[in-house]
Amino acid sequence: MDLTVQEGMKITTALHAPGWHRTRLIRRAIAILLVLMAAALALHSALKKDPQVVVAVRTIDAGSTVTAEDVTLRRVPQNLLPEGTFDSTDDVVGHVAVAAISPNEIPSHLRFVGSELASYLVNLDTLVTNQEADSTQENLGPPTLVPIKLADPTLAHLLNHGDTVTVVTHDDNAPEPITIAAGGRVVLSTLQQKSGGFAASSSREPGTILIALPETPAKRVAAASLTSPLAVVLTGERAKANGME
Is CATH 3.90.1210.10 the right assignment for the domain spanning 52-111? Predict the structure, then answer.
């Protein structure tokens, strides 16, 4: 009889026969299976690389322009990534942070001044609020960022990113303040305007804020700022929390 067949018969007999021989063979088979599974998992992990994303290496203050020294690329497990991350440092260098970013934080597009942030802030509540001054929601236009120089510049530091505000002005011929736009969302409370966009610096113009509004009320605000002093009234959730409404 062939030797291989004999060995197979011995194993079969041992498996069917009670006693420690059977137990030992079963344990060996389980051990071999576990080793193979561990090797397969290790090989899978080695072949699958985590994606590289932009990570802050130091604190980036709100209103600061991101530099190449502020960020780096690191591999992060896919299940730990927030939505809207960046895979190149070039995508964030030169952008303005709207809120402080901590070291080792993974910033998303909502942390920087841009169209994505404007779309996020100008939500349905903003559109509905501004319908009071517009005939249809379609007339409001896309989300827009508009700078406002406050008549009282000392009030700017009281505003936080994301605050909801109403823009008002004064007319000597009107008994009450005139509402220019409602439902605006604060993006930055201090900024400096430059050619082609906005930037933050040590020489920021005090009292100039950046807010997000639909296009139509944003144009009204911009036009009013040319001839009238402007102020903002804090509304929304923070005003309610402080007992201001």
Answer: yes
